[in-house]
Design a protein that fits this description.
Elements: E1 4-11, E2 15-16, E3 23-24, E4 28-30, E5 35-38, E6 41-42, E7 60-64, H1 65-75, E8 88-91, E9 103-106, E10 110-113, E11 116-118, H2 122-127, H3 136-142, E12 147-150, E13 159-161
Length: 162
């Protein structure tokens, strides 16, 4: 099976959040049609807490459909594209098994490179109802379903997603 982008997601709205930024941009939703991407991520997308999210090394957040199905079953609720705060929902690629430095071609003009795993933050824990569960992040990581953070690049630095 060839990997494919199922959905491209950008922030729908900023939500009030008790975290350090006071708001969160985790509420991502799929968009129709091409979206421009640059070195800081997708146009029309934002990160509320730029100290911990976004920037050149975490410009785009990818999540696999297989991992989303796993967590939908584990959490007992639907996990539609964007629900995890991801920019890309991908089918047919083991995002959890991606290696740092690995490059992915998306569409005809965009290349992204894996820079590291996405470690769940407290905002994410609150979103899935795990904010009061001791060791929640460990449980998430123990499932072996971490996700990829990607800068847009290295060649070329801008392009469209399909």
């Amino acid at each position: 099976m060839t990997a494919r982008v199922v959905a491209v997601c950008v922030v729908h709205q900023l939500l009030s959040d008790p975290g350090p930024a006071g708001v969160t941009a985790i509420d991502k939703r799929p968009v129709a049609g091409p979206v421009q991407a640059g070195e800081y991520g997708l146009y029309a997308d934002v990160q509320a807490d730029r100290k911990r999210h976004g920037g050149l090394e975490k410009a785009i957040y990818a999540y696999s459909s297989a991992d989303a199905r796993h967590w939908a079953q584990e959490l007992g609720q639907p996990t539609e594209p964007g629900w995890f705060g991801e920019n890309l929902r991908i089918d047919g690629l083991d995002v959890s098994g991606a290696r740092i430095g690995e490059c992915w071609q998306i569409g005809e003009r965009l290349v992204v490179q894996v820079t590291g795993p996405r470690i769940p933050c407290q905002t994410f824990a609150r979103r899935v109802g795990g904010e009061h569960e001791r060791g929640w992040v460990k449980r998430f990581l123990a499932a072996g379903r971490s996700t990829g953070c990607l800068p847009a690049g290295p060649h070329p630095r801008t392009g469209g997603l399909r």
